[in-house]
Amino acid sequence: MSAERPAPILQVQNLTTSFRTDDGILTAIEDVSIDVHPGETLGIVGESGCGKSVTSKSVMRLLPPATSILSPESKIMFDGLNLAHCSEKDMRSVRGARIAMIFQEPMTSLNPVFTVGWQLNEALSYHTDLSKSGRRKRSIEMLRLVEMPNPEERLDEYPHQLSGGMRQRVMIAMALCCEPEILIADEPTTALDVTIQAQILKLMEDLKNKLNTAIILITHDLGVVAQVADHVCVMYAGRVIEKGTVREIFHTPQHPYTRALLESIPKSGRREHGKRLPTIEGVVPALNDLPPGCRFAARCSIAEEQCIHTEPDLKDHAFSDRPVRCHIPINQTAEVAGSKGQA
Amino acid sequence: MALVEVEGLIKHFPVRGGILNRVIAKVNAVNGVSFTIEKGDVLGVVGESGCGKSTLGKTLIRLIESTGGSIHYDGVDITDLNHRDMLPFRRRMQIVFQDPYSSLNPRLTVRALLKEAITHHEIVPEADMEDFIESIMLKVGLRADQKNRFPHEFSGGQRQRIGIARALALQPDFIVADEPVSALDVSIQAQVLNLMMDLKDEFGLTLMFISHDLKVVEHFCDRVLVMYLGHVVEEMSCIDIHAEALHPYTQALLGANPINDPDEKRELTVLEGDVPSPFNPPPGCPFVTRCPKVEARCHDSMPPLVEKAEGHRVACFVVND
């Protein structure tokens, strides 16, 4: 599989984003590196405050310029352009046209005083040379693509007349109308009911296969990741702590946080019913009060002396070829072999 | 023995409009719901937004008044009790809300939040107040020295613990938990669920657990009501929902839930269409607009809840044939 994997379309390297706040400069994400490949879905998972949304907004340069700082080493390479430090003019030719984004709350991301058609038309007139009738035709085509019922009538409706699922479809239609090479979906289904979520996830999967779009899916829902992601990047307190394919992450998690997170989800089935859930004690450290060592050390069940004093690097370990940020990563193959050897 | 018995509970909300602000329509939030909760049981209520599950919980403990039907609590009909007669029942029936941010008064310390209800219901004499408040805080996993802090100084999970402490302080025997873990992160969610499980055992509580998350309900509850547009469409035991669910809607809910294992990945069940508007529900079964097994008769009348096996009731013509 790795042999025929196409070259990455977007490479984020050493991305560090800080904010000026009343408490001084706080670093929200540090040294984040991710590769995004065409036709693949990269899932970024983590709990609230881990920096997954800051990562995506840094890529789109949607953070307030007055208070946010991207460090000079940060590189966001897209088609020969470093988005981290390019001009706003260059960024405008990329944002919306070649990299598009959909947000968590479809109600607040659509403008309530304009019709659906007006908002689709705005994006098209900005990024394409289509005529007025061509834009209307294209808008209807896009709404049909996202399986919106009665697309011609919907064009003249306002966002408040649509249900949550339909609003998210409009958002996706808007994001896709310029055929972007990358779609960033920031918690696209969190505000939706599970049956509507299934519709939207299937739609994104179909679009990925049809248009070969690369998708960055940001979510806290591990079920959604297992369902649609090809590769996964786990974040904790502003750091990438583990990367791998979706199978590797779910079957042989190497970071204790990833493993604990997977274990704390309620399982279905007779055997698990009514049992106590394994938990991760404590809470995520605050950004202005980060520990000197590993950021997970205080909550980690296998932390040692070194974890408290020095922060581990994100690196490959002897027994695997994928990066983990841990001094003592879990080696499951060795655990299995070791127990057999003793017996 | 049944602690809560609900018979044909109805809640209609009037919709006002026009220049004279007359009632122009009504929303049937809860439409003739009947069930019982045995002492010590946890009854889960699942359904999508707008199905009436929160309204059901609030109507049940009379935070909002019902339009019809009856509620019996511990053998007493509390449907029409006046304010004074209701007071002892108010103490015994508590609620934990979904949003730990908006359900705590930001200007009261934890101590004041807890004390208010304890004083009103005269749970302990004034002299023992501080000890009692501290003991409740310890029970829910907060430290006694945090009692003079304000809600904004706590994290989401801790605030939910304050909400639980407030309910627990009145020594209730029944708690309605309205999406208590929905706003929390996965790792915090597990902490709060474990806490509720421990408290239930320690105090012998009976619970109604309202949630949109079938995985949590399946894990935590003994029985479950599946609601759709104000109707109960299925009631069953939670031991093995996947194997036993019969109603097409319950099956669709299960099928739409992603599984946490990329190897067991399957095509998600995708229902066509959206939920009908509650202002204008279809005349027959409310699920007809999306049901994969729909037949002609489903459009004419609402199928009754029929007992298929012991403790398993389903409202569907096709399944009940």
Please provide a written account of the structure.
Among the domains of chain A are: 112-177, no CATH class; 254-342, no CATH class. In chain A, 34% of the residues lie in helices and 21% in strands. Chain A is built from 13 helices and 13 strands. Chain A has helices spanning 52-60, 88-94, 106-109, 116-127, 132-145, 151-154, 164-176, 194-211, 222-228, 246-251, 256-263, 305-309, 332-342, and strands spanning 10-21, 24-36, 41-45, 68-70, 75-78, 81-82, 99-102, 182-186, 214-219, 231-236, 239-245, 314-315, 324-325. In chain A, helix 4 crosses helix 5 (132-145) and helix 5 packs across helix 7 (164-176). The radius of gyration of chain A is 22 Å and the shape is globular. Residues 339-343 of chain A have low confidence and may be disordered. By secondary structure, chain B is of the alpha/beta class. Chain B has a single domain, classed as 3-Layer(aba) Sandwich (Rossmann fold), CATH 3.40.50. Helix content of chain B is 28%, strand content 25%. Chain B contains nine helices and twelve strands. In chain B, the strands form two sheets. Chain B has an eight-stranded mixed beta sheet, sandwiched between helices. The longest helix of chain B has 18 residues, at 186-203. Classes of the chains: A alpha/beta (343), B alpha/beta (321). The interface between A and B is large, with 47 and 47 residues.
Give the topology.
The complex is a heterodimer of chains A (343) and B (321).
Chain A: E1 10-21, E2 24-36, E3 41-45, H1 52-60, E4 68-70, E5 75-78, E6 81-82, H2 88-94, E7 99-102, H3 106-109, H4 116-127, H5 132-145, H6 151-154, H7 164-176, E8 182-186, H8 194-211, E9 214-219, H9 222-228, E10 231-236, E11 239-245, H10 246-251, H11 256-263, H12 305-309, E12 314-315, E13 324-325, H13 332-342
Parallel strand pairs in A: 3-9, 3-10, 7-8, 8-9
Antiparallel strand pairs in A: 1-2, 1-4, 1-5, 5-6, 10-11, 12-13
Chain B: E1 2-17, E2 22-38, E3 42-46, H1 53-60, E4 68-73, E5 76-77, H2 83-92, E6 93-96, H3 110-120, H4 129-139, H5 156-168, E7 174-178, H6 186-203, E8 206-211, H7 214-220, E9 223-228, E10 231-237, H8 241-244, H9 248-256, E11 306-309, E12 312-314
Parallel strand pairs in B: 3-8, 3-9, 6-7, 7-8
Antiparallel strand pairs in B: 1-2, 1-4, 4-5, 9-10, 10-12, 11-12
